[in-house]
Amino acid sequence: MIMKKIVLSQIIFIIAPLIFCFQCCAQTISSSELIKDAKQYDGKNVTYQGEVVGDIMMRGEFAWLNINDGSNAIGIWINKKLIKDIFYTGSYQAKGDLVEITGKFNRSCIEHGGDLDIHAQSINKIASGSKIYHAVNTKAINFTLSLSGIILLVLFLRLHHSRKAISARFF
Amino acid sequence: MILRPRLEDIKNIGYYLGKIILGLGFTMLVPLIAGLALFKEPQPALDFLISTEITILVGLGLSWLCRTNRDLSTAQGMVVISLSWLAAMFLSAIPLFLSGHFKSFLDACFEAMSGLSTTGLVLVQDLDHLSRTHNLWRHLGPFIGGQGIAIIAISFLVGGTSGALKMYVGEGRDEKLVPNVIHTARFIWLISIVYLILGTIALGIVGLSIGLKPSSAFFHAICIFMAGFDTAGFAPMSQNILYYHSGVFEIVAIVFMILGALNFNLHYQLWSGKHKELWRSIETRSFLLIITLVSLTIMLGFNHFGIYPQLMTMFRKGFFHIISAHTTTGYGTLYSQQFIKEWGDFALTGIIFAMALGGCACSSAGGIKMLRVGIIYKALREDIKKIMLPDSAVVAQKFHHIKTVFLEDKQVRGVLIITIGYILLYGLGALIGTILGYPLLESLFESVSAAGNVGLSVGITDAGMPLALKVTYIIEMWAGRLELMSVFALLGFIVAFIKGR
Asked: Cα–Cα distances in Å, from B84 out to A81, B15, B88, B145, B157?
């Protein structure tokens, strides 16, 4: 009996966080869903997850973030006090911070000229971004050098040919 | 009897083609230098070094192998232009493909043709992480193609031959600003570069005021200006103009879209102090009238179907997209699916209508063009008058385009041939889209957008779309930019080569 209780409690202990995680994930809505079913989600609180890309644009006490979930980027209107933890934004040079935001979704925001956006109430940094180092391809360098050689050869042949033509004409 | 082109004809075409390719190669030095000196991106700069070398090698090789002193005939000039746009597409696609942001070389070619033809349909993947060097090239494409690929060669590489004029005409322009075609080409560059400086400063200041970092503000400004003034609609970020979340930015973009869609000849007149030309021209009158009619129709549609909750939002979204469609720019502050899901068939039809008609002749805008629309309207009015008046009455119509001219049947015939050609091109693309399983209205929208060099999309244009559709849109963008005649000349040349004696 005691063994049964222990096994049961262990199962609950393992499954409960999984269920909780599943619920959290299920609440996250993709950009494609938001755009496709914009009327359905209009004015409702949604949870949206993605990478912060481009510039963070400060506008007084608020800021615009653009968050890309891999399909589309959506504009997030957020109080600037909430974004202190955001360090990396996605670009060629860096992978942006991965964040999860919760806020009111607007199909056509009255405050922002009819844009589709989310007015964030909370933000949670899920993973930190990082710098991206792009190594120079040595094969490409060799290829470039070979091409330079061929161009020089063509230029030399052109020059040689035009000199021969001039000599033939005048001498 | 069709005459087969001789070796000398082919050499003639090859020589001028080589010169144009050489010019393109030199323009690749811009992103190469910017990548090294400004952006500190060595690998992307290396991609451009490879591409520049390949392009210069092809250009040098062709112009040397086909060296000639002969001048181009009109047909040869058109063939040179048709081929040079195809060659430019393949060569411009090399650095884009090397960036690793395209699923295939065909996708890179699609993007290159879209840029050069000032269309703006995109197949790039993960645009938000694309290097600035590659992004600059994406936007430089419209700036080169908008003015004309041959314009570079005419301005700097081709001597004062009549071949220069034939290539100029072959790029869909038949108006010279000044008597000499080389001076015309240089003046087109002068206008564009002055506007480029002013536009970059204006958009850069707006960018700073809306919270962009200084380096971003001016990088975005130059990109948005080049793609806006040249009516291409590319943007450095995946959200296009929506990325900036700014009404002021949209207003400045609208100004440059309109300036880009105006006739270069009209710019010249304005620069020469003839400000009245702006109102007297048949093109600007047609342009204003159609914008007003389409705007009213779409706004009524929005209001009737309750698409936007407020008059201001309705105007901001509606007017921006009407200007974007009519100037054939293709900038957007909506996601492509929103057109289908929210705007509905009524508003979409209005946008298709604006895209199909396009901007002014001798500008970087695409579509049928306002001058042709105006001439067709005048011809129709003349015919109606003839019916209404007694048989003995002499009816003459005139219109003002730089100077006042009487309408001639020959002129109307030429205009109608091109207009019918565009309508057939729009229809053909739509037909192929429907055969491949897309709904009719969506296929028509995308086809008009491609052939009219607009760039707005309802979501069909995607890396996953059928290969046949990608090729169809490439052909539509190419033929639309060259206003069909040069493409017909190339087809005629191929037929003569096969069937001629």
From this structure: 55, 11, 6, 11, 15
ipTM of the complex: 0.89
In this complex, is the C-beta atom of A27 within 8 Å of any C-beta atom belonging to chain B? no
List of residues 6+ apart from B181 with CB closer than 8 A: B154, B164, B165, B168
**Which of A58, A108, A158 faces B308 most closely, judged by CB atoms?**
A108
CA–CA distances in Å: residue B99 to residues A130, B200, B357? 20, 26, 35
The beta-carbon contacts of B109-112 under 8 Å, at least 24 apart in sequence, are B109/B474, B110/B470, B110/B473, B110/B474, B111/B138, B112/B88, B112/B141
Burial of B360 (0-12, 13-18, 19+ CB in 10 A): buried
- For A134-157, write each residue's pLDDT tens digit: 999 999 999 999 999 999 998 898
Closest approach of A53 to chain B, Cα-based (Å): 7
Query: For A111, which residue in chain B has the nearest alpha carbon?
Result: B313
The DSSP secondary-structure symbol of B438 reads -
User: What is the radius of gyration, based on Cα positions, of chain A?
Assistant: 29
Residues paired with residue A78 on neighbouring β-strands, in sequence order: A63
Which residues are paired to A106 by β-bridges?
Answer: A117
CB contact under 8 A, B210 and A59: yes
Best residue in B15, B41, B62, B129 to probe A by mutation, most A CBs within 10 Å?
B129
- Cα(B227)–Cα(B330) distance, integer angstroms: 9
Extract the tokens encoding A116: 């589709």
- The residue assigned the tokens 């206003």 is B483
Angle between the N-to-C axes of helices B214-229 and B247-261, in degrees from 0 to 180, rounded to the nearest 10: 30
pTM: 0.91
- Best of B49, B335, B339, B340 to disrupt the A interface by mutation (most A CBs within 10 Å)? B335
Chain B's closest residue to A147, CA to CA, is: B53
Element spanning B412, H or E: helix B409-435
- Do residues B176 and A29 lie in contact, with contact meaning Cβ atoms separated by under 8 Å? no
Q: Map chain A to HEC letters.
A: CHHHHHHHHHHHHHHHHHHHHHHHHHHECCHHHHHHCHHHHCCCEEEEEEEEEEEEEEECCEEEEEEECCCCEEEEEEEHHHHCCCCCCECCCEECCEEEEEEEEECCCCCCCCCCEEEEEEEEEEECCEECCCCCCHHHHHHHHHHHHHHHHHHHHHHHHHHHHHHHHHC
> Which chain B residues are within 8 Å of A109, Cβ to Cβ?
313
CA distance B448 to B204: 32
pLDDT, one tens digit per residue, over A34-63 is 999 999 999 999 999 999 999 999 999 999
DSSP B276-306: THHHH-HHHHHHHHHHHHHHHHHHHHHHHHT
